[in-house]
Design a protein that fits this description.
single chain, mainly alpha, two-stranded antiparallel sheet, 2 strands, 3% strand, elongated
Length: 207
């Protein structure tokens, strides 16, 4: 990716300031947690907020064609950033919703890419269902499987994954009717769109 030279100095400065503040907040939070200054519950919630903000910032970088390694090098905070990411990846479970979720084997830097894949899978599946003459069952269900696979790679989306699996099961059970019943097909698309919006809300990416 080539860095966009048309970005205004003010925009770049704002991005750098936010990145620096997030990195410092994570390392300072961890230091206080290790010293017992903040309790476990506060640590989890604060780290969750920092993770969400880092994730959103990753998309801002992508939208502005900014490369993170170059930005970190220019700011001279590469080591500090890596330490912050290590703190996140060392945490085996985080209280991101009602319960704790596992970060599994995924590194934090992979999440924006996985999010894009999930979004693409949702849109492709909904677009495919709008096609007239739905006769290729395997095609539709392969798209369902691809979406499920991508969802399983993102931590904390078990409820979203369960909803998509349920929709796939209902579609499979009613495939003969689904081919010719426009209303049933429209309802399936609406249900998928509802789950898609839940996914967006879950990862806190709505504007």
């Amino acid at each position: 990716m080539v860095e966009d030279t048309n970005i205004s100095p003010d925009t770049k400065s704002k991005i750098e300031s936010e990145l620096f503040a997030l990195v410092k907040s994570i390392t300072n939070l961890n230091a206080k947690y290790q010293k017992g200054i903040v309790n476990d519950d506060f640590f989890r919630k604060a780290l969750k907020d920092a993770m969400n903000n880092l994730l959103k910032l990753s998309f801002v970088l992508k939208e502005n064609n900014l490369q993170l390694p170059d930005l970190l090098k220019r700011m001279d905070i590469s080591q500090e950033y890596n330490n912050a990411i290590d703190i996140i990846n060392r945490v085996s479970s985080l209280n991101l919703s009602e319960g704790k979720i596992s970060m599994r084997n995924r590194t934090f830097l992979e999440l924006p890419g996985i999010t894009s894949e999930i979004t693409s899978s949702f849109i492709t599946l909904m677009d495919a269902l709008t096609l007239e003459g739905l006769t290729k069952d395997d095609f539709i269900f392969n798209l369902f499987d691809e979406l499920n696979h991508n969802l399983s790679n993102f931590p904390g989306l078990d409820d979203i994954l369960l909803s998509v699996k349920s929709l796939k099961k209902n579609a499979l059970n009613n495939i003969n009717t689904l081919r010719y019943d426009a209303k049933l097909k429209e309802q399936l698309i609406d249900d998928l769109y509802h789950v898609f919006k839940e996914f967006q809300n879950k990862i806190n990416l709505k504007t």
